[in-house]
Amino acid sequence: MSIQHILKSTVVALAVVTGGSVFAQGTPINAAAFDALVAQGPVADAATIASSTWASKIKQAGTLRFGGTQTSNLFSLLNEKDGKIRGFDAGLAQLITRYILGDAGKFKFTQVTSSTREPVLINDQVDMVFATYSITPARAEKISFAGPYYTSQAGVLVKAGNKTIQSYNDLAGKKVATQAGSTGPAILAQYVPKATVQEFQTHQEALDGLRQGRVDAYVTDHTLLLNTLSLGTGDAQLAGAPFGAQDPYGVGLPKGSDGVAFVNAFLKKIEADGTWAKLWTISIGQRTGSTAVPTPPAIP
């Protein structure tokens, strides 16, 4: 399959999600615009901080501890040259750091995986988790969620040139990778019960399994797959449109934390003043050729 065909397939899939028209593979984030946006984010007044035990604790500590990732091209990617992480999730985390502490750089970062997001909150290693973190009833029994702040669905990734898998309907009897601790296993059990599922601990391990031919396909959050394709390696392609239920991303917080109301108020504030849309444009829209800024999901 030619690179033009791969690009065409990606354009179609992206258009389903964002209404975009052109997919610019490998387009780096505008670091200057990103840094300027988070540096100009709103700052909460003393009364707003004092109204939340969760925010007051962070204010007193002088540092916000957040769990995230450094390998998500569109949502949170480490720039090894300047040591900064940028992307949609990283931007929101830095904006809320500025909202509480007056400085977007006053955070302590902890790398998390799909399997460690709940433990780091339960063990009080972080104050919050921003990591394309789907809100599910099972997770909500262990932690609390603010948001949602974004929605996605599931997607199928196959090796470039694969013509036998056109959508999730073709996965019966196939070896399918997904991430342990993610929503992938449950989605596969519901939509493709006859697939042979192989769970990997990390996104990268699942990708390696696909590239090495140990699995036929990789099913996970469609946004993560867009991240992979946006790197422009050209060795994988999407198979069909996103499927399954709408997948709402939330901000992970300690169970019972009053930070839920605080973070929800913050999210509503940056959605109303246009900061959310600007961050989406810088982190995702400009890098995928889409000018159709999505409407943020309703926050309870």
Q: Could you characterize what this model shows?
A:
The structure is a single chain. By secondary structure, the chain is an alpha/beta fold. 39% of the residues lie in helices and 24% in strands. The strands form 2 sheets. Strands 1, 5, 6, 7, 8, 9, 10, 11 and 12 form a 9-stranded mixed sheet that branches. Strand 3 and strand 4 (84-86) form a beta hairpin.
Total number of β-strand segments? Answer: 12
Shape type: globular
Poorly predicted ranges: 1-25
Structural class: alpha/beta
Q: Supply Rg.
A: 19 Å
Helix content: 25-40%
Strand content: 15-25%
Tally of helical segments = 12
The biggest beta sheet, please?
9 strands, mixed
Order of helices and strands: HHHHEEEEHEHEHEEHEHEHEEHH
Distance between the termini: 45 Å
Roughly what is the average pLDDT, rounded to an integer? 88
